[in-house]
Structure formats: structure tokens, C-alpha cells
Design brief:
Blueprint (H helix, E strand, L loop, with lengths): L1 E5 L3 E6 L2 H9 L4 E2 L33 H16 L3 H17 L6 E3 L1 H5 L2 H10 L6 H13 L4 H21 L5 H7 L6 H32 L12 H13 L5 E7 L3 E3 L2 E3 L4 E5 H5 L30 H21 L4 E2 L21 E3 L12
Parallel strand pairs: 2-8
Antiparallel strand pairs: 1-2, 3-5, 4-10, 5-8, 6-7, 9-10
Helix pairs in contact: 2-8, 3-5, 3-12, 5-9, 6-7, 7-9, 9-10, 9-12
Length: 377
């Protein structure tokens, strides 16, 4: 447990121990997801840049607790379970190939801005019910929101307006998509609650998945342990992706949990209403569980990258993210077989987000290849 100060010198606790994080996420009675409990709200201005990621009186699944949360999680899980696996794979391959077509003749590209940051939201937009041309603006809004800077509030507002419009359209004309299945649920959720949950799902589904693609490609391009992945050894893609979830997880911190009564944790005294920020990457790197950080984790999935406890990422959402990320990586390696990093590995930089760990850019070079079904220009 580490006492920290958030932007504006707002106090909080950062939990980075594996066992401590397991305790916090596994005890919702003591460490609640109800953000209204926070004892610092009186000190938080309306324009606080981290506010969009720490909702106050926000009717979304993130801050719902108890039986209502379980009903809500079931509603989301059913809506996502309705996604056809073949359709998901098909959308992922089609959009990935279109994005590679845009760069394949150039011999070089930034795989973050021109690929990873565009792929997940295009797939999710299709699954949720959006038109293709709405994807770019959604990407910008979500990036602004999660980076927690001066554009965070505007990003949240754009995302809210887009989801509100989608829900209204699908209420009038249901279709075979996630938004329509949520609206058809009989558990009695309001349209505003569905709008909020769609915002949560597309934000949580796009940005970490984009960073999962980028971080995995970085690992395969810079770590000799995964060199075979670049030359046809496709079995090691899954291993590289799992390694990223341990060593370079896209979601490195989550805010948070709120203490319901005075308690002790990690040698510190926590007061009722204190906020606990979940240090997922810190826990994954805890030397008590990673005694040899140089050893590959193989198929070990005991990481915290999808959370833990009743508020962990729903399993259908994890599956969707994995299909999009793995397909995205496979298409890059299939279409650009001699891809190589264009800059020294140590010069790669990370985005400034306090929550997510992704690259600002991933410049690569490759031999120009034809577009699918086309020829060299």
C-alpha cells in the first residue's frame, strides 16, 4: 500500500501488492465500488481532469453494487454473448486488412496511429450498432477521456452524445447488435443506464485492446524471445500476448474502491471513505509471485489485467478483446512479413495516461506489399 497524491494534490491509496490487491477486489463489503462514499468529493472541482474516470453519481455498472450489479452484469454478459464468433472474427479480419491496405504500399508506418488505435473501435462500433463512419470521432473522444488531461471532459461529452443517439435509434429500430439486445433485456434498466453501460463497454473494450495490440507488437519486435513470431511462428503470438498482460498490461491502474469503514491494510490505517486505486501492473510485478521476472509466464493467467472479483471484466468481453487483438496481430505479421522497428527500442515512449499503458507511436519499416486483390502502384 502506497499513499499517493492525484492531480490537484488529492490523496488516495495505491495498492500494488498481489495479496493486498486480491483482498481489496475480493471483499466488496469492505472495499466498495460505490464512488459516492469518497470522502474527497467536497474538494473535487467540476473540471477536474480525472473526474470522467472516477464517476460521481454515475448510473453505470462500474459504480453499481450488490444484487443490482449482479443483474446488470448478467444483462451485459447476455448482450455480449449474442455476438457471433465467426462474425466477430470476420469483422476483425476485414477491418484489419483495410487498415493494412492503407499502409502496405508505403514501406513504413506508425502502427499505433495508423493501425492499433483504429482497429478495435471499428469492430466494436459494428457489434454495438454504430455506422462505420462514426469510428474516428469515437477514437478521438475515448483517447481524450482516458488520457485524463484538458480534453477529458469534452471526450466524455462526445461519447455520451454518441451513445444517447445510438440508444434512441435502436429503440426505434432494433437490430441484431449489442445495443438492441441490452434494450430488449427485461430487468428494468433505464435508457440512461444503458447509455452509461455502453460508454463503459466501448471505452474499456477499445483503448486497452488497442494498447494490447501495440504492446504485443512492441514485445515481438524488441524481445529476441519472440523473434519466431515474426517469421511464421504463430503459436508464440498467444504467448507474447499473455506475457504483455503480466509485464506490460494495457490497464495499469484502475480507480478504484472506497473503504466502507476504518480498517488496516498493508501496514497502513485506512479511513472510511478513502479511495483505493488498484495498481494492476504493480501486483502483476510483485516479487512474491514473480520470483523470476526474466522467466516466461507461459499460459499462466493468474494476472490482474482483467481485474478480480465480482467487478472484473466480464468473460465475454475478455474473449472479444482477445479475438480482436490476436486477429490484428496476425494480420500485421501475415501482410507485412519482414516488418522491423524503424527506431531504437529505447526511444519508444508511452502516452501520458495515469490509467493506461500504451505507446505514443510504433514506427516500423517493411517491404511494400500489394493491397488485397490489387497490384503494386
Amino acid at each position: 500500500m502506497v499513499p499517493v497524491l492525484l492531480d490537484g494534490d488529492v490523496p488516495a491509496w495505491l495498492v500494488i501488492g498481489y495479496r493486498e490487491l486480491h483482498q481489496v477486489t475480493g471483499d466488496p463489503a469492505l472495499f466498495s465500488r460505490d464512488s459516492d462514499l469518497w470522502n474527497q468529493w467536497v474538494n473535487i472541482p467540476e473540471d477536474w481532469p480525472l473526474r470522467p474516470m472516477i464517476g460521481h453519481k454515475q448510473p453505470s455498472i462500474l459504480y453499481t453494487v450488490g444484487e443490482r450489479h449482479r443483474e446488470r452484469a448478467a444483462m451485459l454478459g447476455n448482450a455480449l454473448n449474442g455476438v457471433d464468433p465467426a462474425e466477430l472474427r470476420g469483422h476483425s479480419e476485414r477491418f484489419a486488412d483495410e487498415l493494412i491496405d492503407n499502409i502496405s504500399l508505403k514501406g513504413g508506418a506508425d502502427l499505433i496511429a495508423e493501425y492499433a488505435m483504429l482497429l478495435p473501435v471499428r469492430v466494436l462500433a459494428q457489434l454495438f450498432g454504430f455506422a462505420d463512419d462514426e469510428g474516428p470521432d469515437l477514437v478521438t473522444a475515448m483517447n481524450d477521456l482516458v488520457d485524463g488531461r484538458e480534453r477529458a471532459i469534452a471526450g466524455q461529452q462526445h461519447l455520451f452524445a454518441s451513445m444517447t443517439r445510438l440508444v434512441a435509434e435502436r429503440k426505434a429500430a432494433p437490430a441484431d447488435d449489442v445495443a438492441s439486445r441490452m434494450l430488449a433485456d427485461t430487468s428494468g434498466f433505464t435508457e440512461d443506464e444503458i447509455v452509461q453501460d455502453l460508454m463503459v463497454m466501448i471505452t474499456a473494450g477499445h483503448q486497452p485492446t488497442a494498447d494490447w495490440i501495440g504492446n504485443s507488437l512492441r514485445l515481438m519486435l524488441t524481445d529476441e524471445r519472440f523473434a519466431a513470431s515474426l517469421f511464421g511462428g504463430r503459436n508464440s503470438i498467444a504467448e507474447a500476448m499473455n506475457e504483455v498482460l503480466w509485464e506490460d498490461t494495457p490497464t495499469r491502474k484502475v480507480a478504484g474502491r472506497w473503504v466502507t469503514r476504518d480498517t488496516q491494510l498493508g501496514g497502513h490505517r485506512l479511513r472510511a471513505g478513502d479511495m483505493v486505486v488498484l495498481g494492476l501492473q504493480g501486483a502483476n510485478s510483485d516479487p512474491l509471485v514473480r520470483t523470476d521476472s526474466s522467466a516466461l509466464t507461459g499460459g499462466n493467467a493468474a494476472h490482474f489485467s482483467f481485474g478480480h472479483g465480482e467487478h472484473r471484466c466480464p468473460f465475454p468481453a475478455q474473449e472479444i478483446a482477445e479475438v480482436i487483438a490476436r486477429t490484428g496481430i496476425e494480420v500485421v505479421l501475415d501482410r507485412l512479413p519482414d516488418i522491423d522497428l524503424a527506431v531504437p527500442a529505447e526511444s519508444l515512449t508511452r502516452r501520458p495516461s495515469p490509467w493506461l499503458r500504451g505507446l505514443t507511436e510504433l514506427p516500423v519499416t517493411f517491404t511494400p506489399t500489394p493491397v488485397l486483390g490489387g497490384t503494386f502502384a
